[in-house]
Design goal:
about 325 residues; alpha/beta; 6-stranded mixed sheet; 12 helices; 13 strands; about 40% helix
Length: about 325
């Protein structure tokens, strides 16, 4: 249970940008009162950024979702000389409790703060109250987590399931595995289900087919994964369509694998930066067909709710809720 009313500080800390928010939790309900975006590279550490944002405000508790492995109370971002020191933030900013969690764990906590309008349903299913949930999200990498009910809320069990071995299920996927294994003997699902993974699928298909000159130009001039997605979604290039179709099929397969692993009768949630951008393709049916294609467990999987998280601030909302629970635990 939360205190009746409390003010919390939440952060979503990434290598390029950081979002901070002040929230008010009243009777367990979260309201964001003020938020700001910062360029992470403008600071050497999180503490001065927090101090500038607070401007004298005094939250009771804080939690920061961090795009890096979280071990201990002082952490450096993976790809930037930027430090997060929980104890320094606590003493410098006068915050009683400061938590650091992985950014994907923050997304998991944020599911409790979402409205139905923040979700797109791929499969309605039949949600079992308090049953385990599964969370999977492709973006820069592939995040996975399992959520279990802990009396008053779901607790996130972090996972590195994105790095398990890729298991192809048909000839096209076997050919993709062989292509990827030439460069790296270990082929994980993250090698495929990520922005870079979509580009790898496309490059594999280019060995036997040629993209249009318009797509080649778009790839050279901008973000290759975004260009492939856009041309595939708009049906402007057959090779981009094929790459996106293979990506969606494998995404559905691994989501189904995670649902079985977690016995996720509380639902499967698709997060990450890619899913909202290709939502039309995910809703076409291929994702759910691959999700269900588990032999004798097909009908069981057909009863699992599957939803896509469309709210890009879910991690910030989750950090705010985790801040409130951190205060309670303290």
């Amino acid at each position: 249970m939360f205190p009746a009313v409390m003010t919390v500080l939440a952060g979503d800390v990434g290598g390029t940008k950081t979002f901070l928010a002040l929230g008010r939790i009243e009777a367990g309900r979260l309201t964001i009162e003020r938020e700001a975006r910062f360029s992470t590279g403008d600071f050497a550490a999180l503490t001065p950024m927090v101090r500038a944002f607070l401007s004298g405000a005094a939250p009771a508790s804080a939690c920061f979702g961090i795009a890096a492995p979280v071990a201990g109370r002082r952490i450096k971002l993976t790809n930037r000389e930027f430090w997060i020191d929980a104890d320094e933030i606590a003493s410098d900013c006068g915050i009683a409790t400061v938590r650091l969690i992985n950014d994907f764990a923050a997304i998991g906590y944020g599911l409790d703060a979402l409205a139905e309008s923040d979700l797109e349903t791929l499969q309605a299913g039949q949600e079992q109250p308090h049953a385990p949930r599964a969370l999977i999200g492709a973006g820069t990498g592939l995040g996975e987590a399992i959520l279990v009910w802990q009396g008053t809320h779901y607790e996130v069990l972090s996972s590195e399931g994105g790095h398990v071995d890729f298991a192809p299920v048909n000839a096209a996927q076997i050919a993709l595995l062989r292509f990827l294994a030439q460069a790296d003997g270990h082929v994980s699902y993250e090698r495929i289900l990520s922005g870079a993974g979509l580009v790898s699928i496309f490059e594999h298909l280019c060995a036997t087919h040629s993209p249009s000159s318009a797509l080649r130009d778009a790839i050279e001039q901008g973000d290759p994964a975004a260009a492939i997605s856009a041309f595939g979604l708009d049906q402007r290039d057959a090779l981009a369509q094929a790459a996106l179709a293979l990506f969606v099929q494998i995404y559905g397969q691994q989501a189904g694998n995670l649902a079985l692993t977690a016995l996720a009768q509380g639902g499967v949630y698709i997060a990450g930066g890619i899913a909202p951008k290709i939502i039309a393709r995910l809703k076409s049916g291929d994702f759910i067909e691959a999700f269900r294609a588990k032999g004798r467990y097909r009908e069981w999987l057909a009863r699992i709710p599957v939803k896509v998280v469309m709210n890009p601030k879910v991690g910030l909302l989750g950090a705010a809720l985790a801040a409130g629970r951190g205060h309670e635990a303290h």
